[in-house]
Input
Amino acid sequence: MRARDRAAVSALRATLAALDNAEAVPLDATAPRAAALEASPVGAGATEAARRELSEEEMADVVRAEAAERLEAAAHLTAPAHTDRAERLRTEAAVLLRFLDDTEGTAQSA
Output
């Protein structure tokens, strides 16, 4: 892998995980947490939880939040020993914002 792609790969992997987490459905507080083994669901996919669908705007919000988080963390890294890490965070944020700008540009032109 080329060195200049590492920041992009890191940012995109973290953002995909954040999108996956955003699709999670909150647990019902009244649902039972444990049951007898014989009452457990059986079969392929029996324990899969439903996921919610994110709209394009919700996905864009998650990407914006990930970029903002990186820029904020970079702003806090002011010590000379952390300049490389801060620069990497800024690069990751730029990748996410550029990707977001590209997708918003194509949506507006359509």
The chain has a mean pLDDT of 83.
